[in-house]
Fold these 2 entries.
Entry 1:
Amino acid sequence: MEFSVSRKIIVALIILAAISIYITFTFNSCLVSNISNRVPKWRRTSVVNEIPLIHYTSSVRVVSLLEGNETDLSPKYKLFKEQGLRPERQLPEALIIGVKKGGTRALLEFIRIHPDVRAAGSEVHFFDKNYHKGFQWYREHMPPTLEGQLTIEKTPSYFITKEAPRRVHMMNLSTKLLVVVRDPVTRAISDYTQAVSKKPDMKSFENLVFINGTVGSIVDTSWGPIKLGLYYKYLTRWLKFFPLSQLLFISGERLIQDPAIELKRVQDFLGLKKVVTEKHFYFNSTKGFPCLFKSEGHSAPHCLGKTKGRSHPYVDPLVLQRLRDFYRPFNMRFYQMTGINFGWP
Ligand SMILES: Nc1ncnc2c1ncn2[C@@H]1O[C@H](COP(=O)(O)OS(=O)(=O)O)[C@@H](OP(=O)(O)O)[C@H]1O
């Protein structure tokens, strides 16, 4: 009898437990389904996914390596990208500061063949016209480089800009300075040729060289093409800020006759391995100038553009002689200052 009572109690307890389990389960499922139905569809994705998304978008900016004002598609640059290297823009360590019409473009195009050199393509005019824009602006105009690569820029007007030596010194007192110089008489004619190509109604060279326009009278040193040939004067300013050993003078004449010799001097001066050699050049008889077998931008042989190596107008030999006599003492002074006899007539 006792046994049957306790059996009834156990059965009753089991039934009670089963009922309570059923009620709890049903209630909870209703609750869960209710909550999920109230949450808008766009929120029903996993919260775990949202965290990294927000994190990446807010803290990591995906910047194209080509971002900036220079679109650099050079083979050297593409190679860096392919290798997963991150080049950065640096202020130049070397500058081609002049002289205008000396052969500065040729020098830049020749030296930039070197794998350890990267150059700003166009003249940046930072130390003369754009100085107020600041060094950050200047850096942004430089090409991206890898560690160990040298950044170079050329703006020939730096040589004659009064404030340029102090400004370059302020940027980096170790800046290496390259100056391509050329016989000031030929340089003046080259300068005039460029000016007359833009303004065809200009007076003749002979007319502009002399103060009252007559051959044999006083040379007009206020006329830009003449004034710029007084190299000693501009060099004096640079030597107030830089030792002579930090400047390399390249002969514009030899850069045409034997570019490899001048390029050897340039590579030594810049502390570069001798990579650019005679193998890179050939003489193009149509152009009348040395040209490159290949370079950064071209894989085929090519010469500098039409504005380099223009034919000069005929100039009266008397005027030429008068100008040579005028420049001689100033050239001598320049030879003494640099320790180089450039052999100008
Ligand atoms: N390889 C080669 N090809 C063409 N031209 C050459 C070369 N090497 C030196 N040059 C001489 O460079 C002169 C132009 O000088 P710049 O480049 O300094 O001119 S500029 O100041 O940048 O306008 C340019 O002057 P012009 O002959 O009066 O045109 C050339 O004589």
Entry 2:
Amino acid sequence: MDEPDAAHQRNGPAAGARMHGLFTDADTGRLTVALTLLDSCLTVQRISSPPSSEHLDLRDCLGSRAHRGEREDQDAYLCVYFYPNRRRWMASGPARQRDERRFRLPLSTDENDEDANLREAERWARAIRHNTGTARRPEHTQGVLFSEVRRPRGLMVFVNPQSGRGQAMALYNSHIQRMLTEADIPHKLFITERQKHAQDLVKSADLTQWDALVILSGDGLLFEVVNGLMERPDWEKAIQTPLGILPGGSGNALAASVHHYTGEPPVWGEDLLTSCGFVLCKGLISKLDLISIRLSSGARVFSFLSLAWGFVADVDIESEQFRQIGPMRFLLSTLLRIASLRIYQGKLAFLPAENECESDTACFSTTDSRLPDHLLVPLEQPVPQDWTLLEEREFVLVLAMFQSHLGEDLLAAPDARVDDGIIHLFYVTAGISRITLLRLFRAMQYGTHMDCGCANLVYRRVRALRLEPLSEAGVITVDGEQVEYGPIQAQVHKGVARLISA
Ligand SMILES: Nc1ncnc2c1ncn2[C@@H]1O[C@H](COP(=O)(O)OP(=O)(O)OP(=O)(O)O)[C@@H](O)[C@H]1O
């Protein structure tokens, strides 16, 4: 804390002050507190002994409100809600933590105007909310601030009560409801009752009623929402509805990616939820890449996160049986699968990102008019000539990442960005030892797996890919959800959706 500026107190507010006033401590009603509102900071100076001064950064502020005291109390109160990044204890990393500040304005001495103190507190709350909305981080040069476009509609918040360890409703009650109220964001809760419930709801929803669709669950529920939007006749407009993600599942890869894009140190569990809640209330609306995925049956799905075959897909699906242990389920399944390591036979081809010009021959022609896949040809035809077809036929895993994180603590593609228009393709060829594979996954926690010097691990930046498994049975996952097994191909569509992100 800074020492109080005696001259400042004598002479009034500092230059640039939007408002200046005297309050008392909300709890004791005794200490005198001088508040000064600047463009991007609220200064709190305790004038009474011991004097002190604090500068509270409005970029960390979610909102502010004024209210009358309870029952007989005629004083007015000003509440300001901050979520600064702080260490909980010395050894822990910084994480956003709630810090509510309350200040009291005593009942007006003017008997003819008993509401004067409440009006003054409301004037402060309005001014703080205004400055909170405009106090942007200087690095935010792109995108639209969500606070500028939202209201008066609200959020459609989907909660899957079964996701993760079944705690999503408790997380809503303990964190999200309060944060949205503090940020003055209206919302309506939709508790999903079955598979595809969220998909059906967004297919038929009147989207003009909502500012954004928010998912408090794992990535699977957002996958349903994205595909529900893309199945609508008005998909082109519908997919422009901003999406928000709050971690309530066990993988929470997109939520971890959104946090990663803030540039803040990694956090997990409820700290990740608070961070994503903060991003949701304050964040920018960014463009989001969607990846069109074609399955051998002719079905098509849209993905925002990942496509996996081999080791990663097996671990994802096999870990379902350990759902009750939360995110640890992936670690346990990884160890079990490493113990019985498999080789997967298949063909892999891709269009390198540096091949900017699009193939003349490629153009997937179907009756489906949604987002034509101009980089793909039908699966029965050979890939276009400007594609790379690998000679390797034996893999341990193929993993295409569209965002940075594969799980809360797996930073698979550190350079990925929300709308970079790139598929970050990793594959591990047969011949890798168990110990090296384990080392790779440990390094992936810090995003340093490419620094391990493992010759079996290859990373390519691509725009489209095709995978043809040669073994009869196996598992392929898209965004962590199992899809039909067989030849599959994908291409990126840059920034066609929108995500509330950092
Ligand atoms: N009430 C419900 N009961 C059962 N399944 C549901 C319900 N609501 C949604 N689902 C389904 O649960 C599936 C998994 O949801 P989701 O991915 O959000 O959670 P998760 O699997 O716990 O998270 P993660 O993918 O991070 O492990 C989705 O396919 C969704 O359709």
